[in-house]
């Protein structure tokens, strides 16, 4: 049974990103996966993101020394087989709320000056669900690379489910049967 975590980065509780993600989550569960959801927009943090203090690199532990909710949630990631980020594209990138979470993932890695690198995420699957008002080209594809490039570096596989040109009202994207089918198929692909 696959253990999957979805990390939600959309600030809109009834928006389109959460709507398509909910379908992917349900589908993965129907296919037998154990799914956990983390709402990155609700996590408390002492500092917004990584301080660059490098204390996680000097310690043998793989944990962020800032003992807040963001750090504690990030520390749970190694138990999952699949880590899915879900976000609207904001300014050609993740939402800021999700970026705070992502930067702390540094603490799950040990980087050395020799270029050697150890990661608790090695061998997992990293995945992305993203919606955007504009196209894939020169827009959502840039966001996709921001999770695919780390996946490549960490020795992880990668897959994505992108919803470009979203112009419908909040939450109505899933009324389109083709969109709903795409989200459900993606959830299934993560579970098997
Ligand atoms: C602050 C902000 C920045 C945005 N930047 C982009 C962008 O760079 N590219 C794009 O295609 N859409 C952009 N959008 C549109 C959202 O990505 C799009 O409406 C998305 O589907 C919203 O998801 P939600 O319904 O979950 O909030 C932006 C929206 C906001 C509010």
SS strand fraction: 15-25%
Q: What would the average pLDDT be, to the nearest integer?
A: 97
Spans of at least 5 consecutive residues whose pLDDT stays below 50 are none
Bound ligands, named by name, code or SMILES: flavin mononucleotide
Biggest sheet overview = 5 strands, parallel
- Distance between termini? 8 Å
Task: Provide structural commentary.
With 192 residues, the chain is an alpha/beta fold. It has a single domain (3-191), classed as Flavodoxin domain (Rossmann fold). 36% of the residues lie in helices and 20% in strands. The chain has six helices and seven strands. The chain has helices at residues 16-30, 55-58, 69-75, 96-104, 136-154, 177-191, and strands at residues 3-8, 34-39, 82-88, 109-111, 117-119, 125-131, 157-163. The protein has a five-stranded parallel beta sheet, with helices on both faces. A two-stranded antiparallel ribbon has the order 4-5. Helix 1 links the parallel strand 1 and strand 2. Helix 1 packs across helix 6 and helix 3 (69-75) crosses helix 4 (96-104). The longest helix has 19 residues, at 136-154. The N and C termini lie close together (8 Å). The mean pLDDT is 97. The structure holds flavin mononucleotide. Flavin mononucleotide binds next to helix 1.
């Amino acid at each position: 049974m696959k253990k999957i975590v979805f990390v939600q980065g959309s600030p809109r509780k009834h928006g389109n990103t959460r709507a398509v993600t909910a379908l992917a989550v349900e589908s993965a569960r129907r296919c037998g996966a154990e799914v956990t959801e983390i709402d990155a927009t609700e996590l408390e943090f002492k500092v917004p993101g990584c301080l660059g203090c490098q204390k996680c690199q000097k310690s043998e532990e793989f944990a962020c020394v800032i003992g807040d909710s963001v750090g504690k949630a990030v520390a749970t990631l190694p138990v999952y087989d699949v880590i899915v980020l879900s976000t609207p594209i904001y300014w050609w990138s993740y939402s800021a709320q999700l970026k705070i979470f992502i930067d702390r993932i540094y603490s799950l890695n040990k980087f050395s000056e020799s270029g050697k690198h150890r990661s608790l995420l090695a061998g997992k699957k990293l995945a992305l669900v993203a919606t955007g008002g504009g196209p894939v080209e020169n827009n959502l594809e840039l966001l996709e690379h921001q999770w695919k490039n780390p996946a490549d570096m960490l020795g992880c596989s990668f897959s994505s489910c992108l919803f470009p040109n979203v112009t419908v009202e909040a939450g109505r994207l899933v009324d389109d049967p083709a969109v709903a089918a795409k989200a459900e198929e993606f959830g299934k692909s993560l579970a098997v």
